[in-house]
Q: What sequence folds into this?
């Protein structure tokens, strides 16, 4: 029944026997890469292969928060450009991505956290990203619902305020990029499973699918939580990635109460109010590797207790929906973007954990350049796989002390 329906992004096409580029995975990084390949380089003979439907994975299972207040000198410029691109893409795609530039407020609950925040803010400001350290009273002025009293588990000492951050409607980004890419000639094939990648003399030769074999010289795998398993099974490349479940949920709708995204690393909780008035809330990942998107009673209890402490006005609200997604985590909480080193013509874009949504606009642009020119852009070079062998891990893991996960 599904296959008979006309796709929302345009006409349905029949899978061809060959393409210039094949992209495995129908998420935002894949769609963005295909869009920029067509837009910036005129490469339109592209097939996006999705086993289920576009947006099935992390693209449709997040809380839509975007920001550029990461910790390291390599991450900040990438996320800054991604953040700057949302209004640009809205205009280019002629599609309302519902970008709400409401700002992010990251709560600090100790003097040590405040000192760490100062370093993060200096890094952000050095790269031209607006970020400010404020005290508890100033935080309450921004979010009157905050509880800044001393009688909670983790009293609020201050906050890091990041005005450029906000929220983008995740499914709008999926449909906008899909329509934009398809309009330029990119083919999107849902319910088409990639089964294997064949190589010859160290070069990509073809992709085997449940719909037939495709001849191609360039393949990218960007399949979120499923990327590491696919890359290992198809090419024998093992990646230092653990897959963990991350959960989120929303409450019944309210009148406007939260003008900013509010997060707390100590409480492992964050919240924002959607355009529909719901309070969307999330937390850190489940602490054990798995491939399930099932939800847990513990998570619901944890979120209710945390929100009731630092946002007591939300006490008594009913949670209406809950969902889970997969976070593909690397040891240093930074992604792996690489190509041609292991197999000529093969590119990987994975290991994003819960940072994948907010990065997709910029990453698609630069992965498209990587594929089109067969040369890694400077901004992506620090994210190569070899950094683990060379013991050059990034310091983004420290972000857990100060930040709450937000997608």
A:
């Amino acid at each position: 029944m599904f296959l008979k329906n006309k796709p929302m992004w345009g006409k349905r096409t029949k899978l061809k026997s060959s393409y210039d580029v094949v992209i495995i995975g129908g998420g935002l990084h894949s769609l963005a890469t295909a869009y920029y390949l067509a837009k910036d380089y005129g490469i339109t003979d592209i097939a996006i292969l999705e086993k289920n439907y576009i947006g099935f994975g992390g693209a449709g299972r997040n809380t839509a928060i975007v920001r550029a207040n990461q910790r390291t000198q390599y991450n900040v410029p990438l996320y800054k450009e991604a953040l700057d691109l949302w209004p640009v893409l809205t205009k280019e795609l002629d599609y309302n991505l519902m970008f709400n530039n409401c700002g992010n407020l990251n709560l600090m609950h100790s003097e040590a956290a405040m000192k760490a925040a100062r370093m993060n803010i200096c890094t952000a400001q050095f790269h031209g990203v607006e970020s400010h350290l404020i005290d508890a009273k100033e935080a309450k002025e921004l979010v009157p619902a905050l509880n800044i009293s001393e009688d909670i588990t983790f009293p609020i000492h201050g906050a890091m305020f990041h005005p450029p951050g906000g929220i983008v409607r995740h499914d709008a980004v999926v449909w906008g990029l899909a329509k934009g890419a398809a309009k330029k000639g990119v083919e999107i094939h849902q319910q088409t499973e990639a089964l294997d990648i064949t190589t010859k003399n160290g070069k990509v030769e073809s992709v085997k699918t449940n719909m037939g074999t495709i001849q191609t010289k360039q393949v990218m795998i960007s399949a979120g939580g499923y990327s590491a398993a696919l890359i290992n099974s198809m090419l024998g490349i093992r990646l230092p990635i653990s897959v963990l479940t991350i959960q989120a949920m929303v409450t019944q709708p309210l009148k406007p109460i939260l003008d900013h995204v509010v997060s707390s690393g100590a409480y492992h909780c964050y919240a924002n109010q959607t355009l529909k008035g719901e309070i969307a809330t999330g937390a850190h990942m489940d602490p054990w590797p798995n491939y399930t998107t099932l939800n847990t009673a513990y998570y619901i209890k944890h979120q209710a207790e945390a929100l009731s402490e630092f946002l007591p006005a939300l006490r008594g609200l009913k949670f209406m929906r809950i969902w889970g997604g997969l976070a593909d985590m690397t040891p240093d909480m930074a992604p792996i973007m690489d190509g041609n080193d292991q197999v000529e013509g093969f590119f990987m874009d994975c290991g994003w954990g819960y940072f994948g949504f907010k990065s997709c606009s910029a990453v698609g642009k630069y992965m498209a350049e990587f594929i089109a020119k067969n040369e890694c852009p400077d901004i992506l070079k620090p994210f190569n796989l070899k950094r683990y062998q060379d013991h050059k891990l990034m310091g983004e893991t420290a972000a857990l002390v100060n930040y709450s996960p937000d997608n």
Q: What stands out?
A: The longest helix spans residues 75-93.
